[in-house]
Amino acid sequence: MKHLIYILFLLSSYLTFSQVEFTANASRTRIAVNERLRIEFKMNVDGDNFTPPNFVGFQVVAGPSQAVSQSWVNGKSSMTKSYTYVLKPTKTGKLTIQQSVMTYNGNEYKTIPQVINVTGAVAQPKGPDDQSISVEDSIHLVAEVSDANPYLNEAIRVVYKLYVSNETGVTGWNELDSPKYRDFWSQNIDNRNRQVKNGTYQGQPYRYLVLREAVLYPQKTGKLEIEPLTLDVQVQIPTSRRDFFGRPYTTTVSRTVSAGKRAITVKNLPAVGRPASFTGAVGEFDFKVETDRAQLDAGESLTATVGVSGSGNLKLMELPKLKAPQSLEVYDPERINKVSTNIYGMRGSIKDSYTVVPQYGGKYVIPPVEFSYFDPKKEQYITKSSGEILLIVEGDAPTTASNDTAVASESESKNLIKSNVPFAFIKTDTQLIDKTKSYFFNTTTYWAILGGLLLILPVVLLYRGQVEKRSADVDGNRIRTANKLSKKYLSTAKKNLGNHELFYISLEKSLHNYLKSKLHIQTADMSKDKVDELLDQRNASPTTRKEFSELLASCEFARYTPSSEASMKEDYEKAGRVLNDIDKQLKK
């Protein structure tokens, strides 16, 4: 019985101990030396012997002010007791408000020390409960980059996190500016399972939410910049007012936060040791060349594939070409793309599938194919070879001549000579000069041709001058080239209707080159506002300007979201109509 009573006593003491809460809450964790902060020491029991800290580095401006509240809910009572001070820092730096102490039922309780960052004086100091400052300290938008010094075409990750302090709530946000990835191949990664997680920001406990993730492949060397993500966030923060039960009221304020620009320094791939077979592949890959059959009849076809699998810039590199003997007819390859992109980069395989048709019987050897890539982890080039492939073709072998037909090789234009006596048409007694005929020199025709050449000479010189002038016109040539490329990519987009990615890449290139040719603008300057301003100056109608901006935005957005063939056809027809309207309006 004595043991049972002792156990019950310990259990009741433990429950009483575990229910006691004694906390310290500072209104701000970052202030200027000429500002003030409020700190509240709060307990949920009627504690005794409250002892505040010494407040080293601070001057007590007001306090302590004591508040006690008690409530009854469903027959259960609860109470809150607090001591509040208003402090003014006396120096700059990282200051610590030490623990306060109180006792309850013979047990001693202490608060957690509070770290306050004190900066230099500001022109307009704010009060301890100023809401704008509370918001400033409680919410942060951060762009985390996996590698700020990658190699050319090496994948890097960008993760945008919204950090919110534990005392602050967020009710929603609007995106003001989207990040821009100039000089990067980029793909946004869909983040469907957004979950709030616990973490730290600058050493302080925070909650955070991953808003967006993207994988980037730098396409240029040197210093590149990632434009920032900017949000307008609705934030709920506590005020100094409290309800009947002592809980603080909250207010909602709007705050603009930005992740800031991020600088990426891209290293060029080493020139030393670069193999001749290197075509721009960066990552970790396997390489294979295969044929679907090794023995067949002349005139039949086989399929040969040149394939690369692994992780790296699969969509951005070239595959080596298949080389075959001239007696094998090789058709242009078909690209087979099985690549997926996640936050760690591209992964999968690409293949070039060749159709090969042997014309004659015999044994043929497809020579080895080399593939080289740069491994950024090992920082070295790696070369892989496929080895030789032997083909056995059943059928007649090629012949140089026969009783009826002599067949030449492909390199000799496949001419047919139908004669039992080859080369019989060549006569050994052929006369090179016919003495019975007069000479062309010094005839009327001779002098007429010579005079005509002298008359044509000025025209040729004038034409040559125009050509040289045109060649020297760098800006004009750039504009003409951009115009040709615009038409070319628009035609390519039409051919790729049904292929979502290739269609929108071609359409976007067509629109960009059209702007270069018509507005004399470079790709780096193609912001929505700049394009709209230039079109307005050239008398383009508001409706046309709006449709063109929507088309550019549609291309940028649609590259990373699924689209039906019908929507692609609609965008293509819209592009043709809008470009035609702009042409007409700019000529007015």
UniProtKB/TrEMBL annotation:
Transmembrane regions: 445-463
Signal sequence, start to end: 1-18
InterPro entries xrefs: BatD
One protein family per Pfam: BatD
Keywords: Membrane, Signal, Transmembrane, Transmembrane helix
Top-level division of the source organism's lineage: Bacteria
Name of the protein in its database record: Oxygen tolerance protein BatD
Native organism: Nonlabens xylanidelens
Taxonomic classification: Bacteria, Pseudomonadati, Bacteroidota, Flavobacteriia, Flavobacteriales
